[in-house]
Amino acid sequence: MDHFYQLGWTLDPIGGSSKSAYKAEIDGDKFFLKRNTSPFITTLSVEGIVPQLVWTKRIETGEVVTAQHWKNGRELKKTEMNSSRVARLMNKIHSSNKLLNTLEQLGMKPMLPELLLDKIQTSLSPKVNAHHIVRSSIKYLENKVPQIDAEFCRVCHGDVNHHNWLLSDEDELYLVDWEGAMIADPAIDLGMVLYTYVDFSEWDEWLSKYGRPLNFDLRQRMKWYTLVQGITMVQWYEDRKRFREMNEWILFLNDVLNKDKFV
Fold first, then answer.
1. What is the SS3 assignment for 96?
2. C or N: which end of the chain has fewer Cβ atoms within 10 Å?
3. Cβ atoms within 10 Å, residue 7
4. Confidence grade of residue 17 (pLDDT, cut at 50, 70, 90)
5. Out of 2, 29, 159, 169, which one is annotated catalytic?
6. 73-75 β-sheet, strand order
7. Where's the Aminoglycoside phosphotransferase domain (predicted)?
8. Could you tell me whether strands 53-58 and 64-69 are parallel, antiparallel, or unpaired per DSSP bridges?
9. In this predicted structure, what is the pLDDT of residue 19?
10. Hey, what CATH topology would domain 2-70 get?
11. Does residue 60 register a pLDDT over 90?
């Protein structure tokens, strides 16, 4: 990012050690700069799902840098994930034909359940694969593979935890960090929100805010995808030898398996 330093920008790296994202300032104006962002960011900005995109530039290194308006604000609290605003924004994302068309034009194909299951089965370390709760989760996945048509798939975020929801000081709600975006069953997002943040007795109410009823098929699909994501997180933390977090996700898997036992 020497290009921007030479032009008098002040850059503060954010978001970890990769130094791909920066809080940037020049002449009193503040921006969020990011290197090599997907062209998908343009559509997300137009749809009002992320802060407004100001410009996109290719610098001398060949990298593409995007600038968005910097928004002062905070991430959502866990208790706020039960709000109508979260439900409505998720519905907007899952319903957007513009978002879907953009990812299709970028060559993305639907991530069907069979592909997710195969990815899980081939990526687990022997240690994770041997854990009895993980084995029980995989058995459930193998026995309950959802049967969905690719035409049913929509744009999904893939990591809807509360850290990725930004509430600006102007009371604007955004969902950020779209690196894991996919075309998939919307239940992959819905399940993680409901199992993680919403009491089971309030699922029907939350989904009514989202705009669809809670039926047996949706319950089963949400449980299936949530187990997929939970196993993925167990492996992610095991790879990094962060065993406390790994064990927390194993406990999460156990909770999911034992909640809503009728599906």
1. coil
2. C
3. 8
4. very low
5. 159
6. 73-75, 165-168, 173-175
7. 17-224
8. antiparallel
9. 65
10. Phosphorylase Kinase; domain 1 (3.30.200)
11. no
